[in-house]
Write a structure and sequence with these properties.
Elements: H1 8-13, H2 18-32, H3 41-53, H4 65-94, H5 98-103, H6 109-125, H7 130-140, H8 145-152, H9 156-172
Helix pairs in contact: 2-3, 2-4, 3-4, 7-8
Length: 180
């Protein structure tokens, strides 16, 4: 059974608000995590919109535009991962060491600088919040949640509440929350 195409009125109702665009950007950032440097979050979002506009992907009736575009982004990211796994498998089968590099690229100086700048911005953003600063320091040091709580004497409730407060502030600032 073919999904019914949207009417002109449905298309007008589906116009993206600023909030929808912020949601789509956050979803694109999430989906682009870990993808090779040639696939940025904006490329992912733009490709999803292009596929929707050129008719490659058609939105079924009853599906919101944000959910529809999020599904397209998920598909595009999955395509990237499948291609990377396939290429890594080819390298592994040929005995070439390229498979290890493709699966686990070493960070380059530019990426290290970007990480340091991001940490500095987060430190500045949470400068007045001691618990948030402690959690950031622990995450930057590679500590687990349990280790952070033990190191800084935070209860599980304090830790979870602070993480929620941090996440909300980051979302208000338009920054994707991607640290687990």
């Amino acid at each position: 059974m073919q999904p019914r195409r949207r009417s002109e009125q449905d298309t007008e109702d589906a116009a993206l608000s600023q909030t929808d665009m912020l949601r789509l950007k956050a979803i694109a950032r999430l989906r682009a995590r870990g993808l090779p440097s040639d696939a940025s979050w904006s490329d992912l979002l733009n490709e999803a919109i292009a596929r929707a506009l050129d008719g490659t992907r058609q939105c079924p009736e009853g599906i919101g535009v944000v959910a529809f575009l999020a599904g397209i982004m998920r598909s595009i990211a999955s395509e990237h991962w499948r291609r990377l796994r396939r290429e890594a498998g080819i390298f592994a089968l040929s005995g070439d060491d390229g498979g290890a590099d493709a699966a686990d690229p070493a960070p380059d100086p530019e990426r290290n600088l970007a990480s340091l700048q991001a940490l500095a911005a987060l430190d500045q953003l949470f400068a007045g919040d001691l618990a948030a600063s402690q959690i950031l320091a622990g995450l930057a040091g590679g500590l687990s949640a349990r280790e952070i709580r033990e190191t800084y004497g935070l209860s599980e409730t304090d830790y979870d509440s602070t993480r929620k407060r941090m996440r909300r502030l980051l979302l208000r600032q338009g920054i994707a929350w991607s640290i687990r």
